[in-house]
Specification:
Layout lengths: L13 H20 L4 H20 L3 H24 L5 H27 L3 H26 L11 H13 L4 H27 L10 H15 L13 H12 L2 H7 L11 H9 L1
Length: 280
């Protein structure tokens, strides 16, 4: 298992993830045959993770790790079950994302509660790890809402759960695990921000080409597409006419019908001209 740092996805090696998929896929098909739905598995995994958080508050780390591990495995099977049963949906994806955030928040909150009366340093580390984890999740959600790729980073949710589980199972390893989580999630948040920021950077205009020339080129392409619609798109005329042409070329027809076609000149006595004259 190696880390791939040079590519856009700074995550555990793809071969490792493909190996997990090979194991999960047949289990998902079996669960689908048994009549279990992906949403039920998601809710069951959420309940087990909340139960693990409640056990963690009492200081029984090993029991919390076992219960949380079972909940995470069940949560990992919901996607394979949905694909096997051909029941993938936007509702299921939304439910799965919300359940993941609630589960992770419950675990970190439980650690913060437990350490608040025992070690202020560990309690602060738990809060920082939770904060950076939520930033990582938000960056991906916001990037995808903008049509960009946000799947990158060293410490995604699976890696964070593995580190938490090891910290709970190995006696005296909780502080090391929390330091690893804080540093790893901070680096991941920065790396993901830079990755999405570079995607969102606007492409520079060609050297020696004015914005109007670019618009005229696009209008020329649009002219061929809109010929059958009876639209008359040109690039000549005065500056106001050129602005109107660009507006009509890129604004959908329904919006133009609602707000008015800017290429149509208003008569001298129109209300719009009278309002502008008064304002002048």
């Amino acid at each position: 298992m190696r880390l791939s740092i040079g590519g856009p996805h700074l995550v555990l090696d793809v071969r490792f993830r493909e190996g997990i998929e090979k194991v999960v896929r047949p289990v998902g098909r079996l669960l689908a045959r048994l009549g279990l739905t992906a949403n039920r598995l998601t809710v069951l995994g959420l309940v087990l993770n909340i139960l693990a958080a409640a056990i963690l508050v009492t200081g029984r780390f090993v029991v919390a790790a076992v219960v949380g591990g079972v909940g995470s495995i069940i949560d990992m099977l919901d996607g394979a079950t949905a694909k096997a049963g051909k029941a993938t949906s936007r509702r299921g994806a939304f439910l799965d994302s919300v359940a993941d955030r609630i589960s992770e928040t419950a675990i970190f909150a439980a650690m913060t509660w437990y350490f608040s009366s025992r070690s202020t340093r560990l309690a602060v580390l738990s809060v920082l790890a939770l904060g950076f984890s939520l930033v990582i999740s938000y960056e991906r959600a916001r990037a995808e809402s903008l049509g960009l790729d946000g799947k990158s980073g060293l410490f995604e949710r699976g890696e964070r759960l593995i580190v938490i589980g090891l910290g709970l199972l190995i006696p005296g390893a909780m502080e090391i695990a929390l330091w690893v989580l804080v540093v790893g999630t901070a680096v991941t948040a920065i790396q993901r921000f830079i990755y999405v920021w570079r995607q969102a950077e606007p492409a520079p205009a060609p050297v020696g080409v004015t914005p109007y020339r670019i618009a005229e080129t696009r209008i020329g392409r649009r002219r061929d597409q809109s010929a059958d619609e009876g639209e008359e798109i040109g690039a000549g005329g005065s500056e106001s006419e050129r602005d109107a042409t660009v507006f009509n070329a890129f604004v959908p027809r329904r919006m133009r019908e609602r707000f008015g076609d800017r290429s149509q000149k208003r008569p001298p006595g129109s209300p719009g001209r009278r309002r502008r004259a008064r304002g002048a």
